[in-house]
């Protein structure tokens, strides 16, 4: 869904691991480079356990080498919800003020993760909202599939079964 100033995408995945394990993976910032292409480092910049107000940093690689994206946790309910807010800089003085939320629910044999991304585009590139929505939906879907592969492979390893390598 897009208006002249907004971007919204929604996607999800089912992971064959328990909710607490999946939730913990999402809130441990050092995991981000394992599933988000272009992020070379991610860390919590504030002290204490994750919760509303926790701040973090993602350091980007090429072509945005060294760019740091600051974010904060805007909503947090252990094993149920974690949402992050930040401003994503784009070319030509455009930016996207956004919130990315992950909702976790127990299902037979694992966890359903629902991801929503809502953003407000500011600046001269506002008309590209529809394109950004399509690109974001594809990127988030790929990211969730990568997390599924990682967690299910780790689960097989810890249960004594050899993990399969992704194709």
Architecture overview:
The chain has 167 residues and is an alpha+beta fold. The chain has 3 helices and 7 strands; from the N terminus they run βααββββββα. A 7-stranded antiparallel beta sheet has the order 1-7-6-5-4-3-2. The protein is globular and about 45 Å long. The model is unreliable at 1-5 and 159-167 (pLDDT under 50).
How is the secondary structure organized here?
Layout: E1 6-15, H1 19-27, H2 32-35, E2 39-44, E3 55-60, E4 68-77, E5 81-90, E6 94-107, E7 110-122, H3 129-158
Antiparallel strand pairs: 1-7, 2-3, 3-4, 4-5, 5-6, 6-7
User: What percentage of the residues does DSSP assign to strands (E)?
Assistant: 35-45%
> Which class of secondary structure composition applies to the elements?
alpha+beta
Query: What is the number of E strands?
Result: 7
How would a textbook summarize the main sheet? 7 strands, antiparallel
Order of strands across the widest beta sheet?
1-7-6-5-4-3-2
Straight-line distance between termini: 32 Å
SS field, number of helical segments: 3
Radius of gyration: 16 Å
Described by the principal axes of the CA atoms, the overall outline is: globular
Q: Determine the oligomeric state from the structure.
A: single chain
Low-confidence stretches: 1-5, 159-167
What does the average pLDDT come to?
86
- Share in helix: 25-40%
Order of helices and strands: EHHEEEEEEH
């Amino acid at each position: 869904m897009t208006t002249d100033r907004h971007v919204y995408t929604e996607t999800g995945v089912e992971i064959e691991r328990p909710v607490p394990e999946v939730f913990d993976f999402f809130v441990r910032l050092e995991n981000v480079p394992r599933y988000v292409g272009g992020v070379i480092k991610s860390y919590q910049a504030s002290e204490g356990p994750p919760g509303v107000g926790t701040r973090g940093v993602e350091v980007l690689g090429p072509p945005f080498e060294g760019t740091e994206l600051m974010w904060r946790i805007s909503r947090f309910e252990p094993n149920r919800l974690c949402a992050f807010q930040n401003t994503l800089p784009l070319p030509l003085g455009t930016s996207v003020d956004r919130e990315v939320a992950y909702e976790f629910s127990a299902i037979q044999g694992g966890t359903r993760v629902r991801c929503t991304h809502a953003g407000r585009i500011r600046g001269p590139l506002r008309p590209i909202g529809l394109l950004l929505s399509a690109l974001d939906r594809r990127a988030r879907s790929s990211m969730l599939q990568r997390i599924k592969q990682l967690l299910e492979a780790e689960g097989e390893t810890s249960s004594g079964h050899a993990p399969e390598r992704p194709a």
